[in-house]
Task: inverse folding
């Protein structure tokens, strides 16, 4: 029942961590830095996932996603806003006429511990309300007790509901804990129909890390070599500074290369990252650090 | 950084993944076009800018003072072939003065000094090295060609760590060898190589000094500058005159030192050829000898290994320090069943190694240390091609000036090929296959060398079995090229004898009573 139709790959933590930390040692300066930072903005899924979210808050978020900074900085719009299903209609309204997509977290986000029928209905309604992208969570409980078939089938069922709507599959890697599990979840989700694989909900104690992202990128690379299909990657949660964002882009550049350096195939899920990146962009433009008061809140 | 080709279309004809729903709208790239466009986001230059003051000429460091510069040779920056400084070639008479100064210091000051007092000097030296580590790293990079990333993050921290570690032993010698009393040997003559100039100086000096010996150190001809700056640190630390003497020069200076009748102990790190000559010259004398010589290490990858990390270990094993590493994993033994995927990953990985200005913080592979070394590498690579192995080489651009060689590996290598037997000492890997663990062992041990080896497998039992049967001084498991002052290092067979590091590293510098 739960034997896997593909080889299970083992990951050695020590060397994986070492390789990941090597990307943080790249020194990105001047024009490459500006290029990287603007790309990072274009890859952002500006996110608000709180119980206290309201259409008013979503309006701020959407406006920020459309115009992250004053026009003189020539900063692109963010890729998407990411909200709970109840706020999809509002988000669609506030992003109308822009390139900013609306992503909805669905499938009983963030735990995923609900019957499949509920998850599918959750997904269906978000799409009906206009969501362009669905960020689903896997059932970590099922995964950890070895019910891989169930995890696979749920992803596949959600993908069937999604159709052409973009599906991102969240593993909550902080709960899977081991790198072996992260690699296995990646191989599983990619084969089950994920368009993107995503690290975290932002709700666990440990969110996106460089080594975890590296392991997922390697799974994406192997799938590309095997099938020729490019799967996307979204590290989410915990990426707060421009410096960290650049380290992720360096890793992307050196593991998957230029074809993935686009919002079509790489996203940052973040809420506070944007302004730190914008502050760095402003500094590169005029040589000075500006007060955070000059940057609008999302 | 260009925008990717449009990936999504409405076509659903190219469904290739396992599940019928899988990425139904994605178009598969045909097999012939499945290449990764790695590294196209070019990084702007990021030069290390810490200034270093280099004198135009240097004398010898004898009895706590620098002599007037004498008959000189040049030391150049191998990354641009420009002269850095003139350095004095020590004559036999200079060596004699250095040995006499060391003898006097040993007998009148250093040998008699309580261990806890010697320790204070060593701790002080270690701290000053830490304070000046960035300058020393830049100097090491300029004089030797290694990347600033490595001299800053690996060499210098280890240099300080060795002094700290052996400082700790200085007052504990009575407990190092239970039941026996450790006495210093006297004067040590130490000859070190150009691949880790300052680190090798630390490996040699720290245990010798901790045990109460005094030293005459000869750095390599192409990389003398950091040792001379270390001499200034000894002055700053007020190390008593004569405790460490540094004589620069080429082979003749080294010969004068090891053959000097006034020394009690010779420690040499370098080529097996020179090591054999030293061993022959010292035969019949009372001098004690340790040799750390060449290697042709087997890095063994089993099919149950974490492949991704094994590839990292292969890269670290052969391309660390441009491959100028005696324990480099220069023979890769891969189990046949995983050979294709290992080789594919290696191809991708070497494409991402940045070769160029060693002072740029993003450079992965710096300059080859000298012109003769570059020629030796080229000659051996040509022999590999001639003997029928297939050369895979990074297409990276090499700087016009300076000595550079692209990261390379050979597949289809036979055990009889020169590139499988001789030490290349450059960024060139020879890849061979095996079928069973027994065959891997046999092939790994089939070399006159025996310095190091690597084993990659998820099975702990296999690691222990291999490690106990590999005839190599150091065996790394699921990692490679890891160094620590507490861990002994040294070879079997023609890779030398004696150990450096750990309590084992004290033993060659003491007589046990």
Result:
């Amino acid at each position: 029942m739960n034997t896997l139709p593909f080889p299970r790959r083992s990951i050695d933590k020590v060397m994986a961590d070492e390789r990941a930390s090597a990307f943080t040692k790249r020194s990105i300066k001047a024009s490459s830095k500006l290029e990287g930072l603007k790309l990072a903005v274009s890859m952002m899924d500006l996110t608000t996932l709180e119980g206290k979210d309201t259409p008013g808050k979503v309006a701020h978020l959407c406006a920020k996603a459309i115009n992250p900074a004053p026009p003189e900085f020539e900063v692109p719009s963010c890729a998407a806003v990411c909200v709970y299903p109840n706020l999809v209609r509002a988000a669609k309204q506030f992003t109308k006429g822009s390139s900013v997509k609306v992503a909805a977290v669905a499938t009983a986000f963030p735990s995923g511990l609900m019957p499949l029928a509920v998850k599918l209905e959750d997904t269906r309604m978000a799409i009906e309300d206009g969501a362009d992208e669905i960020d689903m969570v896997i059932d970590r409980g099922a995964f950890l007790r070895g019910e891989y078939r169930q995890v696979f089938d749920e992803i596949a069922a959600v993908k069937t509901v999604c159709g052409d709507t973009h599906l991102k599959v969240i593993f909550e890697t902080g709960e899977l804990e081991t790198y072996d599990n992260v690699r296995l979840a990646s191989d599983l989700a990619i084969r089950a129909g994920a368009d993107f694989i995503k690290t975290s909900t932002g709700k666990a104690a440990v969110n996106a890390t460089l080594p975890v992202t590296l392991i997922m990128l390697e799974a994406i690379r192997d799938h590309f070599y095997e099938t020729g299909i490019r799967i996307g990657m979204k590290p989410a949660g915990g990426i707060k500074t421009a410096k960290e964002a650049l380290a992720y882009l360096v890793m992307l550049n050196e593991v998957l290369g230029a074809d993935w350096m686009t919002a079509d195939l790489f996203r940052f899920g973040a809420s506070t990252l944007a302004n730190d990146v914008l502050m760095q962009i402003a500094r590169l433009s005029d040589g000075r650090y500006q007060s955070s008061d000059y940057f609008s809140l999302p | 950084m260009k925008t990717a080709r449009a990936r999504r279309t409405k076509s659903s004809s190219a469904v290739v993944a396992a599940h019928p729903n899988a990425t139904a709208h994605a178009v598969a790239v045909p097999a012939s076009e499945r290449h990764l466009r790695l590294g196209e986001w070019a990084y702007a230059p990021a030069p290390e800018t810490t200034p270093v003051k280099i004198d135009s000429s240097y004398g010898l460091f004898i009895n706590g003072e620098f002599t007037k510069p004498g008959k000189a040779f040049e030391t150049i920056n191998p990354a641009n072939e420009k002269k850095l400084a003139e350095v004095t070639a020590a004559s036999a008479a200079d060596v004699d003065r250095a040995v006499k100064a060391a003898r006097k210091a040993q007998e009148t000051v250093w040998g008699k000094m309580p261990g806890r007092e010697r320790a204070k000097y060593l701790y002080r030296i270690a701290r000053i090295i830490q304070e000046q580590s960035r300058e020393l790293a830049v100097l090491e990079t300029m004089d030797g060609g290694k990347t600033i990333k490595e001299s800053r993050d690996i060499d210098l921290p280890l240099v300080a760590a060795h002094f700290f570690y052996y400082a700790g032993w200085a007052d504990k010698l009575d407990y190092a060898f239970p039941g026996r009393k450790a006495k210093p040997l006297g004067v040590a003559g130490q000859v070190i190589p150009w691949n880790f100039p300052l680190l090798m100086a630390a490996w040699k000096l720290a245990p010798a000094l901790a045990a109460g010996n005094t030293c005459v150190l000869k750095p390599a001809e192409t990389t003398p500058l950091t040792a001379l700056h270390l001499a200034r640190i000894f002055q700053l630390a007020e190390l008593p005159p004569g405790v460490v003497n540094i004589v620069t020069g080429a082979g003749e200076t080294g010969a004068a030192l090891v053959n000097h009748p006034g020394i009690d102990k010779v420690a040499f790190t370098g080529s097996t050829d020179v090591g054999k000559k030293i061993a022959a010259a010292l035969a019949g004398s009372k001098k004690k000898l340790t040799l750390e010589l060449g290697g042709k290490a087997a890095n063994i990858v089993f099919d149950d290994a974490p492949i991704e990390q094994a590839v990292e270990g292969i890269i670290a094993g052969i391309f660390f320090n441009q491959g100028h590493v005696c324990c480099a994993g220069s023979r890769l033994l891969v189990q046949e069943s995983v050979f294709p995927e290992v080789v594919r990953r290696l191809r991708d990985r070497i494409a991402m190694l940045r070769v160029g200005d060693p002072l740029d913080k993003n450079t992965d592979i710096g300059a080859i240390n000298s012109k003769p070394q570059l020629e030796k590498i080229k000659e051996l690579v040509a022999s590999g091609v001639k003997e029928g192995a297939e050369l895979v080489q990074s297409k990276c651009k090499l700087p016009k000036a300076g000595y550079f060689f692209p990261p390379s590996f050979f597949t289809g290598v036979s055990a009889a090929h020169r590139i499988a037997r001789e030490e290349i000492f450059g960024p060139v890997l020879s890849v061979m296959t095996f079928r069973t663990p027994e065959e891997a062992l046999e092939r790994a041990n089939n070399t006159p060398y025996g310095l190091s080896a690597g084993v990659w497998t998820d099975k702990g039992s296999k690691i222990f079995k291999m490690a106990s049967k590999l005839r190599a001084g150091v065996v790394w498991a699921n990692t490679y090229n890891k160094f620590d002052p507490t861990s002994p290092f040294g070879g079997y067979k023609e890779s030398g004898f004696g150990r450096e590091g750990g309590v084992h590293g004290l033993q060659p510098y003491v007589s046990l009573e």
